[in-house]
Amino acid sequence: MSRRVGDGAGGDGGEPAHVVGQEAESARLEAALADAVAGTPVVVVLEGVPGVGKTTLLRRFLARRPALATVQAEGLAWESGRPGALVRRLGGLPSEGPVDPGAWGEALAACWRARAAEDPLAVLIDDAHAADPASLQAVASAVVRMAEGRLLVVLAARTGPDTPAHPDTRDVLDRLPGRRIRVAPLTSEQTRLLAARAAGIDLPIPVARRLREHTGGVARYLLEILRDSPPMRWSDWQTRLPAPTSVQQRVEAALDAASPSARALVEAAAVLGNTPILAEAAELGGIADPIAALDEAFAAGLLSPAAGHGLDTLTFPGRFVRGAVHATLAPARRHDLHQRAAAVVRDETERLRHRVEATPLPDAALADELLDLARRKADEGAWAVVAGALIDASRISPSRADREDRLLQAVDALAGAGLLGQAVDALSDVEALPPGARRDAVLAYVAIQRGRRAEATSYLDGAWRSRGTDRATAARICQRQVLHALADWDGAQLVRWAGRAIEHADPGSPAAVETRAIVGLGYAAQGEIEEAFTAYRAATRESPAGPQHQRARMGLGWLLLAQDEPEAARRELEYAVAGVGQGGSNRILLWALCWLARTRFALGDWSGALQNVDQARLLLGATDLELLRPLVHWTGAQVHALRGDAEEAARHVELGTAAEHDYLVMTVPALLARAHVAEAASDYDAVVRHLAPLATRTPRGGLDEPGFWAWHDLYANALVVTDRLGEADEFLRPLEELVRRRGHRSAAARLGYVRGRLLGARGDTAAAEEAFVAARARLEGLPLPYEKARVDFAHGMILRRAGRRRDAATVLATARQRFAALGARVYMERCDRELKTGRPGSRLHDNDLDALTEQERTVAGLVAGGMTNKEVAAEMLLSVKTVQFHLTRTYAKLGVRSRSELAAHFPRSTG
Q1: In what residue span(s) does the HTH luxR-type domain sit (predicted)?
Q2: How far apart are CA 703 and CA 448, in angstroms?
């Protein structure tokens, strides 16, 4: 992702002086040129928001190839209504004539074909979104007519809601057949690099993160802000970020041209917030005719009605306009508007915010009011509001001790709200405070959310040792220990620390209420399911509404999913997801989305599961809750792997990786994602390798509790397929006993189908069939279509290998139908292969072949058909070692010594 960020001389080939990133886009553009040079015309649509670097990318591309023949043109907005305006500038057409995109396309194709006959030709159209539609249609027609030719056509076009474009132009661009390269915005790391290169600024990481979010990573805006702001601005993570200079100038010019009433309305709206109420803005600005003022402000691009709200709620077009308007206010005017706004708005939190904005000096009394608000909102679990109030209180507190104490509480609240990025931004200030129990408890809380297990352990141990006699501090440390144990899926520790938290906490305090919303999972991780449900019934009664209720419903949904009640789980988790709209926590929302995705996967709604994964991915980017990253991507990896999209599955695996010593709720889904992808690729050795860290973990504790982490059947099945039958049997026996004691139906069915495969591999087909029938019976009435399909598929394979082709075909057809309903293409194809292999072939002509077993015949037929041992293993869901074993016995029985002799000796099936 590179873009030009400065003027002046560059390096080789005219490289600009300040360039960061854009490597991926450059590589894709180079690949497109290489294909075009090879003789295949290629069309590339280069997309991105204004200022992200599309034009710079094209300039750099050309600078590196000065000998490349080019035709260049640019779409002009004022010509978008003149058909043929752009195509005539491309050359080869008369300046006048009727509108005929088809004929123009033929002329262009002839011209380009002639020019590209000897040397490659690049046609570059910048600002294609501003071109007239007829010209773009002609370009498309020209490319279609050039089936061959060394031609590269690149159209650079803006995207985004504020992009002016003829609607037909956008339609043509969307329909153009070709490759799409989206120029990505800068990352936080690239923002730091840009600051160093372009402005000589060593940007602190927290400020770089905020600046990147503020600008959307658009290089043009970043460069303007960096170059036009004083260096002192970048020393504070709470610094107020300005609008880019170009936007600030445009807004100031529009305000200067506005009438007094329109300007007053815009200024009042900017003071009130991002989505002000029109009536409140009119009252604050003293506007007699707000509709006329709004109409003028709308025409000037300064205000607009918010989508879906009619005229009663306003918004600002673009991400910078409100800030630019606010920046134009003189100090006295700003002070006056915020003071009066405090009397206009109805919400208590907003009233206090305006009073803080109007207070340039320390104010102990106002800080105390903010503290009182924070305490009351903490009781509700509205941690985002708590954090904002505490940050404001810290800023206006007269004493240093109060400022530090309130900052500490604010960072704790930010972590509780799931606003981890902001919490991390403030860590340098927190770490600079004197060591102590409260400081270490806050640092531990942030470390837990970041998935840093060892760091959290160290801070929690230190906090507990230095807790003193303050019961509130002790309760807070215990509650953090509860979260720490949950992240490690350690039920005994969770319940133990929950008891201590409730013992030290005041009744109704956040530490007590949040602990009771979690303790049920601790009981469940120990197998005490009735106690778990009892705890959740109590938690939902204690907090019948609000964020704490959201927490309890999320935990209950997770518990219900684990206990084979996915439909009830979906109701609870959907409630928890919706709860964020009532002031709930983004942290709990992310947990809920992860488990809702798993629930929808279990129910067979895989498209809905992927929608939840996409929602969670966006939220993950906004919250930086690394603890949940593997959990987010686990479902994405599994669904895409089963649907045959190996590339997308691998991307989820890579995004959801975790280290061996991370929290268990990180390592288990990360390893499961890898195992699911390996199983979909028939790489059963890799399945065993990925899950071995779980199988060899001592003790495994809650990891074996049925229903929560379904990895056992995946691992045991891979052991069977790779001929480790003794290991599989030894692994299964204690789990089967545990599942029997718990009475867990789906877990019993999963282990049951593996037991069936194991028995079948040992040649006991009758016992294997009994295991499959029992597994199917356990799933009867449960809405778990994928689990049922797996049982049928394994059963069908064993029947086919036992020579019972007709029975196998019936069971496999049922399995295929279930897999097809889910879109599990990988297993649909396996069912098809099994069904095909099971059909009778042509009569064998050599009596020696009668000595082969069914399995040996199948292996021999596939090898004779040209497959490698590895391909046969994947085809038959066997290990390579097993294939080699069958092949060796076949060679001996038939008296052949090579694959070629086998191919000549063994007639191919016609079935």
Answers
A1: 845-910
A2: 19
More confident residue, 4 or 76: 76
Helix 331-344 with 278-285: angle, nearest 10 deg: 130
Q: What is the pTM of this model?
A: 0.77
| Nearest alpha-carbon partner for 518 in 665, 322, 308 | 665
Does the pLDDT of residue 14 top 80, yes or no? no
Closest CA to 533 of 523, 545, 543, 548: 523
Q: Tell me the residue type at 878.
A: L
**CA-CA-CA-CA torsion sign (689, 690, 695, 697):** positive
Beta bridge partners of 157: 47
Regarding predicted confidence, which is higher, 145 or 673? 673
Contact of 196 with 202, CB cutoff 8 Å = yes
Q: Which of 504, 472, 503, 509 is nearest to 379 (CA)?
A: 509
- Cis geometry, peptide bond prior to residue 435 (ω within 30 degrees of 0): no
What is the CA 428 to chain-centroid distance, rounded? 28
pLDDT-derived band at 251, boundaries 50, 70, 90: very high
Residue 192: HSE in the Cβ half-sphere, 13 Å Cα cutoff? 10
Q: pLDDT of 385-404, one tens digit each?
A: 999 999 999 999 999 999 99
What was the pLDDT predicted at 904? 67
Report helix, strand or coil for 154.
Answer: strand
Read off the tokens for 654. Answer: 């890579």
Residue 583: in which H helix or E strand, if any? none
Alpha-carbon separation of residue 28 from 151, 399, 874 (angstroms): 16, 57, 33
At 699, give phi and psi (nearest 5°): -80, 160
Instruction: Kindly report the three-state secondary structure assignment for every residue of 806-852.
Output: HHHHHHHHHHHHHHHHHCCHHHHHHHHHHHHHCCCCCCCCCHHHHHC
pLDDT digits (tens, 9 = 90+) for 688-738: 999 999 999 988 889 999 999 999 999 999 999 988 999 999 999 999 999
Which two structure tokens, joined as six digits, stand for 585?
Answer: 């926590």
CB atoms within 10 A of CB 336: 14
**Cα 794 off chain centre by:** 33
